[in-house]
Structures are given as structure tokens and as C-alpha cells.
């Protein structure tokens, strides 16, 4: 970068950012690791690596224009990046990373802060064509109940909407009482016209169930059903191979085999407590039923740790 360009860019940054903002921005660029820099909007892996390499060779950045020496960073791009972090005031890199990662964990509708603070228990649900699975968990990560509630004898059984609504009303009556009910958003791909009625039926079931679980919504305007972003559980527990979700039963089996005090404190399920009497429910199911119960339990754990307790985060 020429001397003339350097002076021009320095003047631009002087005009745009205050002294406090420049201090905060430099603090971030001087402390963040490559992984942490990638949580900043507009900074991809290539730019993050280049920033850290330059810093390792030349020491900390002393001014914003010095960042323009980093390959891949131009004046306009750097201005946009600085604008995203100029008001971020963190005392440590760890706080920065945790905050930016937690921002990616959102629910639909948004979970109100007062509901989050006062939450005592939740029920995680998974809807299938022939049953509804649930896991009822308290705030201290203790599983209270865990089951599959049957709907129909056959998964592809043809039913009219009135009959379907009646079945779901029976399911709701059997669900345990909780402060909120949570599901994971699903995107159904209509790859075959023959399965369109089946997938449409699942959407209808989901809509009916949510409506039944929010009977006072019109009067109170307060939701009791919340959706976690699609694939959140898969990402949280690292259950992806080639972008596709794999079985999670090995995690459930680890919970059973390892006593609570003996678990690795860094484990994602270190404090999950499943009473012995509930394991009979799990092992009495066939392979498919065990997978469905596993999904419900891990959804409950992920929702607590990502949204309610905010002790963990999702990788971008």
C-alpha cells in the first residue's frame, strides 16, 4: 500500500470511527483466533487466516489502516467489517466468541426472556405419521417421562382431517403438563409426487398439534409452543456425515452405561439424568422406536443448553 493510499485510508477511518470504537475494533482483531474471527459477519475463513498470519509475523495491529496490509482486505470491505463490531465491547476473546455463537440460536416464535428465566420444565416433541414422541425434562436436566403415543396402526393410513384432529386431541390429553412444548423445524422435500399426500399430512398434523397446545393464544397472545431451527440438534451433537443426519442412539446408550458422577464434565450430556424406571420404556421399543425416543431426548437437552441455559452454542 502506497504512502498516499495509507494517508487517505487513515483519514477515512478517522472520519468514520471514534477513538473508543477504534480501540474496541483493534482489540477484537488483536485477540481473536482464526476460528473466532469467522464469527464476524463478512469475514470468511481465508480472510481470518490471513489476519492471524499477518499478526503473528508483525505483531498486534496498532491502527485500522494497518489492517489494509492483510491480503484480501480492501478499504470498503474493511469499513463494513469494522461497522459490524464497532459497538461490541468485550473484555475477553472468550466472551466475544460465546456471544456471537449464541446469536445464531433462535426460536420461532422468539422465546420471551421472562419465560426463559422462569422455565421449570419442557416437553420435546417429534411428530410421525403413526405416533407422536415426547420427552418431558425439568430445568435440572432430569427426565420425568418419555414415551411414544400411537396415532394409527399404519403410518400411511388414509384418514380425514376430522378423524386426525380427534386423534391428536387424545394425544394432547396424554402429554404431561409443562411450561412450554418444543419441536425442531422440518423442511420436507417433495422429491416424489407419490409422497406429497403423506408429507402434506405431516404438515397438517403439526399445525393441528401446535393449535391444540396453544388454546389460549387468542386471549393471552402468549405462545406455549416453540420451534428450534432445522438441524440444530444434528449440529449440536455433531451427528452429521456428509450433510446427512446419522443415528443418535449411541449417545443415549452412553448416558445409560455411565453413571452421572463418572461422566466427562465436558460432555454435552454430562448432567442429563434418566431415572432407571424410564429405561424400560426405551428398551421395550424396537429399533425405530428407540431412534424416535432418542431424538426427543436430545431435542430437550439441546433446547435447554442452547436457548434456556445458554451454556453452549452452535457452530456456524
Automatic annotation (TrEMBL):
One of its GO terms (molecular function) is DNA polymerase processivity factor activity. One of its GO terms (biological process) is transcription elongation by mitochondrial RNA polymerase. InterPro entries: RuvA_2-like (IPR010994), TEFM (IPR039150). Pfam families: HHH_3. It comes from the Eukaryota. One of its GO terms (cellular component) is mitochondrial nucleoid. Gene3D superfamilies: AF1531-like domain. This is Uncharacterized protein. It comes from Pomacea canaliculata (Golden apple snail).
